[in-house]
Amino acid sequence: MNRIRIRIGTTPLLHISISLPASKSISHRVLIIQALCGEAFSISHLSDSDDTVLLRDALAHALSGDSFDMDNAGTPFRFLTAFFALTEGERVLTGGERMVQRPIGPLVDAMNEMGAHITYLNHDGFPPIHIEGTHLDGGKVNIAADVSSQFVSALLLIAPKLHKGIELHLQNSVASQPYIKMTLDVMRHFGIAASWQHDVIRIAPQAYQSKNITIEPDWSAAAFWYEIVALAPNAEVTLLGLHHDSLQGDAQVAEIFEKLGVETFYSEQGVHLKKSHTIVDFIEIDFRHIPDMFPAIVATCAALHVKFRFTGIENLRIKESDRVEAMMSALGKMGYQFHYDEPHTLSFLNEMLPTTDAPIECDTYKDHRIAMALAPLCLCHHEITLKDADSVKKSYPHFFKDLAQARFFIETI
Q1: What is the pTM of this model?
Q2: Choosing from 50, 218, 250, 292, which is the catalytic residue?
């Protein structure tokens, strides 16, 4: 178990420039497209996250391997489910302890409806799965879109290679809609035309076109620097390479944190964050389409004593951890009291429980976003120790090095 103690010095945080990791969401889509494309193209600034490395290696051995352990990499697991179903050969796709608790049923149902040969090896609806690659015609298919947008994106990415393309009918309320739009935008970069009208996405059979691409920095990772600026007494941070016209829905973080005391300025260099000290008393957010923003925002609001009502949090229960419970548990150790209307609403009325001056140690549940959201809270609580802190490698391998650059004291214990 990797444990890290984090505290902040007395020197104020001023004029720091940070190079964020590449977007792993875009990286994963581009890697699948590269595997499906008939011609080679170059990928610049590919994510170096553990998840991306797992997907890249799996694709490199797709024709020679018969068993692939994706650990806790949810997006690669879902994307490979569709990719392997279309690729000749038999394979087992499995994962770690948390992965086998995360549902895969809606994607498997949709794939099998198209003629795929996917079976469960343990519990129905959950990994591990056995996939026998076969020819898939495509055509009209239904998918439950309320569990994960990754199921939808997995189907869209292989759609151009299907004999009949795809007419994908999205059933139930669509989760994380910006990620589906991201998928279509990335596919458009490689020449794929698609239409999305109401709850139906149509993609005709067509060929991916080879085109070089540079992966933009990760707006999801930017959320933790917004949190730092919001909580620090004085801070200015430049996030190099980020821009307003992004493929990523999580760019909404700038608008949200404007209400939490952080101003955003855009330039050719990147995004500049500056403390404004203008903070609302109450904020209400629906996280249905921006689930990855939840840990950083709930931590910031609590630490700033901003009352809130957060909805659209149902699917946070099936992420790398139960993120609602994980954040409630950690913040509860710091005295923050929440009202949880399971599974729909989390509220904070600025109610505090008595606490001691004892050191705070929090479990990250091996969830990268929980670890990164809790680390900046040492700005308000002097010192925090995190268990399984190396979970940040899943999306932001150099997170703690960047914190050290920002004058946080990091100690491995």
Answers
A1: 0.94
A2: 292
